[in-house]
Design brief:
By secondary structure, the protein is an alpha+beta fold. It has helices at residues 2-12, 17-28, 39-68, 74-99, 159-169, 180-192; strands spanning 31-34, 101-105, 109-114, 117-122, 126-132, 137-142, 149-152, 174-178.
């Protein structure tokens, strides 16, 4: 009887089993690759979090002293509000970047997500992906003028899987490895121009 009630409810809202299967298939095609932060950037973020905590602590100490003395200064109330707001916002931004920085491949888009900030790129505009062996970088090239290329910053052992997933969404994407000698030659030609 539970199955009948569920089916009847789904039918009543216009939701069919076929749509549910399509949604599950779409979710399977969504691939996530975690962003790899450099040790320096991780250190800067940790120092930023420590500074946010110090700012909140110092502001709380000054607020406690302010409450014991003069409560009439609008300037001081505004200062405390802004200090809490800025320190809290930066702390939330840094934590969200540490927790949710990733590349998401869907059927139609490559999404770069840093915390709650997202950038979307159409997969149909990608024409090439290259791994530079000397610098150990994976680069994706676009055929539009606005976004010429993007360096994909994931673990090196995920490069092949990333390119395979990208190629399965757009067959016209060319993929190649660039040796150290070819990379040096390419850089020298670029400098001459």
């Amino acid at each position: 009887s539970k199955v009948v009630i569920k089916f009847a409810f789904l039918r009543a809202i216009g939701y069919t089993i076929g749509m549910e299967q399509l949604t599950n298939n779409e979710q399977r095609k969504r691939t996530v690759f975690r962003f790899r932060f450099s040790p320096l950037l991780l250190a800067v973020m940790i120092v930023g979090l420590a500074l946010c905590a110090a700012c909140i602590g110092l502001t709380s100490w000054q607020l406690a002293d302010f409450i014991r003395t003069d409560l009439t200064s609008v300037y001081d109330w505004l200062k405390f509000f802004l200090l809490y707001f800025v320190a809290g916002f930066l702390a939330v931004l840094i934590v969200s970047m540490l927790v949710k920085s990733q590349y998401i491949l869907t059927d139609k888009e490559l999404i770069l997500q840093f915390g709650f900030v997202k950038s979307k790129y159409a997969i149909k505009k990608i024409f090439s992906a290259r791994v530079f062996k000397k610098s150990n970088k994976l680069t994706v090239y676009f055929d539009d003028f606005k976004t010429k290329y993007m360096v994909i910053v994931v673990r090196e052992d995920w490069y092949d899987e990333f390119v395979k997933e990208l190629g399965s969404r757009n067959e016209r994407i060319e993929f190649d490895y660039v040796s150290a000698e070819e990379e040096e030659e390419w850089k020298n030609n670029k400098k001459k121009k």
